[in-house]
Request: fold
Amino acid sequence: MTVRHALIGLLVSTLTALTSPAWSQSMEEIRERGVLRVAVYKDFPPYSYRDGARYRGTDVDLARAIAERMGLAMEVRAIGADENMEDDLRNNIWKGHYIGGGVADLMMHVPFDPAFAEENDRTIIFAPYFREQMAIAFDPERLGDATDVTQLAEIRIGVEVDSVGDYYLSGAHGGLLSGSAQRMLTADEAMDALIDGEVDAVLAPRAQLEGGLAARKADAFRLSMFQLRGMLRSFWDIAIAAKVGNDQLVAEVMSALAALKQDGVLEAVAADYGVSYMAPAADVTAVAAP
Reply:
């Protein structure tokens, strides 16, 4: 499973750890430990992915900057996505997986949405730090207008299987675009297919496309924002999660993130991966509440 499963339900209306097991603790215990343990999704560029012996990406670098601002070291807990985001929060923030392994202090890349927060009341979802939206990367020699449904129906569009983009192409415009969908295991694989000429476009979240084009130095391709008209939200904000009761941790993280935003660190982290920063609707000190 991948992060796509966590997003589809929201937009429509084996655990891997790099460290020894540990359970979420109070701020006092975290400071005594000197390490902030942060869960990030593995194999999820440009947000979080393994690069040799270490993890990097926008979520990883931002979490490290937060920890440093708090005077702590940062320890990555790389996780695989379960069936949905509710499972991910249970397994990695407030309860732990049934096979063991403990939980993290924080989890990055959680949807910032009041209804979702109400359904997951054992976690605090707070500090929105990035706005994501759907976009299409394409070969301008094959596609002149990314909003022209007739043109889209005549080309090959790479999408991650079971993703928001796949869902859209399968059902939009009475199924007119279903034959255009070229399903790949990941958005990254779809980007490789675009570079190799196996598809003419890729429909995915903007940061994945921008980061993918930047990493491949693929200047010949264009990118346009894409409206999922009539079916799904075309954009969403992402935030951080912690276990309910860790109020001091939440307060310190929000304070650190506010200072980082003031210093321009959020924009700089995104730019390091070729991603243009887009601010969420709410301030970084907000808490998702019904």
The radius of gyration is 19 Å. Confidence is low (pLDDT under 50) at residues 13-23. The chain has two domains: 4-131+235-271, 133-225.
